[in-house]
Amino acid sequence: GGAGYVGSVVAQHLLEAGHTVTVLDDLSTGFRAGVPAGAAFIEGRIQDAARHLDPSYDGVLHFAAFSQVGES
User: Fold this and answer.
1) Residue at 62 is within a domain
2) Which residue in 2, 8, 40, 71 is a FRET match for 60, CA 20 to 30 A apart?
3) Partners of residue 25 on adjacent β-strands
4) Any residues with CB less than 8 A from the CB of 18 and at least 6 apart, and which?
5) pLDDT by residue (tens digit) across 21-69?
């Protein structure tokens, strides 16, 4: 998710590079405050992501995972 550590850092770098960023996260382990300012935010699960896709998106980056290998 984009509200976790890795996703939020990548989102920030993309924003700084001039990209438009939309973050999808269910906040089960991430934090809304972690979403960088300037990024759109959608609270939801990856299973529901298709209904939020916009034809203007150039790409999708997936960062939703558990931090412990055993959990993933």
Assistant:
1) no
2) 71
3) 43
4) none
5) 999 999 988 899 999 999 999 999 888 878 888 888 888 888 887 776 6
Is 41 domain-assigned?
yes
Is the pTM of the predicted complex or chain greater than 0.85? Answer: no
Residue of 21, 59, 55 whose CA lies nearest to 41: 21
Backbone dihedral angles phi then psi of residue 18, each to the nearest 5 degrees: 95, 10
Structure token pair of residue 46: 């990856």
53 vs 28: CA distance, rounded Å: 21
Query: What is the domain count for the chain?
Result: 1
Distant-in-sequence contacts of 46-54, Cβ < 8 A, 24+ apart: 49/24, 52/22, 52/24, 54/22
Q: Is residue 13 part of a domain?
A: yes
Q: Is residue 69 part of a domain?
A: no
Residue ranges making up the domain that contains 27: 5-45
